[in-house]
Structure prediction request, 630 residues.
Amino acid sequence: MEALVASAVAVLTACGVYLVLRRRTFPVILGLSLLSYAVNVFLFATGRLVQNMPPILSKYADATYTDPLPQALVLTAIVISFGMTALVVMIALGAFLSSDTDRINTTDTPESGDNA
Amino acid sequence: MSHLIILPIVLPAILAPFMLMVVRHHLDLQRIFSVAGTMAFLGIAIALTAQASTGDIHVYELGNWSAPFGIVLVLDRLSGLMVLLTAILALAVLLYSIGTDWDKRGHHFHPLFQFQLMGVAGAFLTGDAFNLFVFFEVLLIASYGLMIHGGGAKRLRAGLQYVVYNLLGSTLFLFALGTIYAVTGTLNMADLAERVAALPADDTALIRVGAILLLLVFSIKAAVLPLHFWLPGSYANAPGPVAALFAIMTKVGAYSILRMYTLVFGPDLALSSSLVGEWLLPAALLTLAVGMIGTLGTRDISRLAAFSAIGSMGTLLVAISMFTPLATGAAIYYIVHSTLATALIFLIADMVVERQGPAITPTVPMAQSGLISVLFFIAAIAMAGMPPLSGFLGKIMVLQAAANTPQQTLIWSVILVFSLVAMVGLARAGTMVFWKTPDGYEPPEPSDDADEPEDAVLSARVSRLPFVAAFGLVAMLVAMTIFAGPALTYAEATAEQLFDSEPYRDAVLRKDAQ
Prediction:
């Protein structure tokens, strides 16, 4: 299971980084989403991977348990990245509609009249 | 347990939704509430700093959950000072944006402003690394709104870059926190400090990766050299007062570096002693150089302000990266100076842009050019670190702290040479904008009949409030110079408290034992 989770994080991160380095906003936003998925899975794994265990300490035996803290962290991270993705989509849309170009950089299109 | 510590977070957190929901269509009421709220915030900050200045460390346990299980807010000298600095800056910026009607040019300026204050205050006060991440997000999401306030195609596109860059930073922050949690099993800063110190010496690879990742994240916020690309574009295209408020945002990065790398990954620790300073110092020197060279090359006064802000961050980070009590004392003095001076120069840049556009070119004399040029002159002196203002004192302290260290020659030469470069750059911009007139320009004949109604119209249109705000910042800089003695005493006491982390850990973790 460790290998599976690790390679999932690796593939997601690699695709995310590749997409973020694109020049148009849509792939960049997709890349940011992929990166946030990667970090969520990564955070989940930081509490060690165990199967079929409750997130509660048992006082009767030293049985293993699932660390509940990373789950709380992931929940927070999911909420934040969801909100941020919605925001970046709106800003990207605003930028596209007001300047008729969806390029990420601000310098290469002097003809688009973006002196507003 | 005094509830005062949480007020700088709760007050804006209540005020912002209130303004958003109850008085959203009444700009005058919003202004009144916003100014009153910020003044109350200033009052709380003064009370907090007074509490912290005794040297005690005050801990506030949220929900009464004791550390390390619950989240704690910690008030010590450094966090008290930073909250106070935020409050002073916020009041000046708020008055400026009301006086120039910047808050009319888009929606929800005042609620976003309050959320920004909440995020910044929270980041300074929290004693939990994950909570620091959450407050970073609060201040960032408010800053996204403020950054594109007023709209316009260019600002939206610059804003998009800013958001994407910071989202990447946030992702990296989570990776760093995950790595650190995987090794130590805690995210409370005091608890982290104890667990990191107790790690076996031969098994530190992963925590070192975490420490460096975290340094990268804070360097993005602090605009350290290879990661500074977001700053000129976004600050230059942000509304003027917002850029001035953002002067505190780079300082949040600097504060986090100071906090994490004295408390958790301290200079005495074998695993991180040769790690942070060695990476940070060259980067800081390069940041200083690039920022100051940037002031020479810009053709746009907002970018001039942005590059001088980068240069100022460079000087600050040089002081931080030495990680000695003396240098940290200098850094704390300089952090206050740098925030005020950066805000001042952004406000002045905005005044110039509003009157004659962004280009640094000879122009016809603009309205109130006398006052603005005086302000620009003062701000340039402060930014370049010339006597008699506090920038000079701060720079001297940094130089003194670097004396008799192995890198003395390097640090001294870089700081001194690039002070000169900054002086040339700022002087060039000042003479172009304020002294030169275009070829063939004839000054109009002074005739009393024509001038008077024009002046009346002008004074009705241009409020005095922006100048009150700008001269308020100047007054703070002057006060920093006159009361340099007490200020330095406080800064040195703060540095001592940072490097003696035992009381901090005791206050947070062993509250009952005391």
Remarks:
- The radius of gyration of chain A is 20 Å.
- The CA atoms of residues 57 and 63 of chain A lie 8 Å apart.
- The mean pLDDT of chain A is 84.
- Residues 2-105 of chain A form a domain with the Helix Hairpins fold (CATH 1.10.287).
